[in-house]
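Why predict the complex rather than its parts? Because the way molecules touch one another can change local conformation, and only a joint prediction can capture that. The input here totals 686 residues.
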Amino acid sequence: MNTLEIKNLNVSIDGQAILKDFSLTIPKGEVHALMGPNGTGKSTLAKVIAGHEDYTVESGEVLLDGVNILGGEPDDIAKAGLFLAFQYPLEIPGVSIANFIRAARQARLPEGEDINAVEYYKELYAKMDALKMDRKFTARSLNEGFSGGEKKRCEILQMSMLDPKYCIMDETDSGLDIDALRIVSEGVNLMRSEERGFLVITHYQRLLDYIVPDVVHVMFDGRIVHSGDAELAKELESKGYDWVKEEFVGAPA
Amino acid sequence: MNTILENPTQTTLANAPAWLADRRTAGLEQFKALPMPSARDEMWRFASVGRLSIDGFNVTDAPAAETLTALVERSNLITKREGLSVYVDDSPAAFEGISEALSAKGVVYLPIAEAIAQHPELMEKYFLKESTELGSEKFFGLHAASVKAGSVLYVPKGVEIEKPFVNYYWTSGARAAVFPHTLVIAEDNAKASVVDIFFSETEENEALNVSVSNIHAGAGANVFRKIVQDWNEKTVSFQLDTTVADRDAQVKNVAVNIGAERARFENQTRIEGPGADVKMYSLTVAEENQEFDQRTFQTHNAGNAVSDLLYKNALLDNARTIFSGLIKVAEGAQQTDAYQTNRNLLLDPTAEANALPGLEILANDVKCSHGATTGNVDEDELFYMMSRGISKRVAMQLMVFGFFEEVIEKVESDELAENLRILIRNKFESKIK
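Output of the joint prediction:
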């Protein structure tokens, strides 16, 4: 029950199949990395699980601690305990980081119950300090005019403030320099626990030097074609993805 | 029917000077001579002139004392202020004048009638001297003939006043016609701020408003004017506002438009000296069958000056907005920076936003831009917010408030900003499901 279980998921967009009988189980306490070439369906998987409505689910289930979340509204899925860190976080003009996260926390409270503002800010500031974010950021519009690194730190800040059971991180390393990558990874590592599972989607092995995965999966053409331990990521790095195409899919006709 | 529009008469104030009588007569003639607006008129393009139901309104008697008291009580949007005036159906309800210290410096803050009696030369120079050029000349004439309520602020050279002067204009009686007038004269290097607030006593009292506001900013003067228009939705409103800015003057106008069934807002800026910097900001929440018709004119008669306009509208239900803006740069007004932006956020497919940006440039070395965008709520932004657990309704509200925040921040007063947020929230929070 303590798993995020993706079972035989088939998803298409405009009649074109993207995910093909995709299955993956992430137990709490583990970090799973999902690697693979571009265009293989990694980001689609992340968005479908989070409830994006642009995709057509043909069949399958996504069980969060045993409860199917597939096809739910994005806010309900989030409240069930899923967090998606976006590859390209959106800019929301005029909505401050503090108010945004507060609204997200408020949404998790029972009707009529309010957030304790003092405790909220105390926690927010402590977590921003850990991510080396200037406290002045709380008043800034969410992601507006942020650098790539600032946006990703802001994603991790949200993730940490919302205390999810399962985190899906979509290409969190893209657009990060080495310092930002280290800070973001530390933020994630601090959140690793027996109570939480991670799916780290990445194209490059670099991120996995900092966030060391328990399991590495290789995805190609809408499904997982190979799984292994952290060494697999290094192998992929040195051999490239052509190896995957040849070995697991067969050379193109 | 004996109403102000079918049978307009001049308002007479006791001991009125001849120049005033002349201006009132000229106004009356102008009102009678000019035709009612027609849809064929470029200045009224897209406006529902057929819905201009301005018949049957009349000047009313002073409301009962308890009404005045109650409305003075409700005139509480801004507590930190230098002066206050409250008018109800153009009758005076309250007036808090300035301190002796400011009087000693030559500052004047008075109701119009007293200003005319005590400072006739000043009033002859400025009162009813700036008409509109944007289509409502007929209604300016009616205003000139009828105006009796309003406040005059005069700040002499070099005097700086931080706290605002706050003028409340209420409607109360059945089918009342009101003609509020705010006049601000800031001499060289003077500093002042004024807030005009337009309110209705109830949601039901029908009213016609034809208000005029004129700002004269001398060399190096700094004037900040804020407008809160929150009439009920049974009000037909014309606001005819002008700003004249001299050398190095800085003027900022921020208008928040929430109410009225039909609100025509004509806002002109005329730059007469180099180095002037005039800002014109506006936000509008339009719902139900409201129509907001906004016409703006930025005239640069001197070079090396800046004017910047940002009008943002959010529309719900069957509401309509019209933004028509013109920038005119006179021959020789080189190195002008003039900007004009209109942004419309459509929250319902049945709402309609019209935009008519325009430029007329007779100088060759200028930076001018104009642009209008109209869009719906961004689905990707909505998904992003919902993916954090925020419901669709709250996410939409956050986005709309975010859309407005850019303008609300410009009022530079935490108290007023918060009160504006509450007014806006009250208006449409229940609407976004």
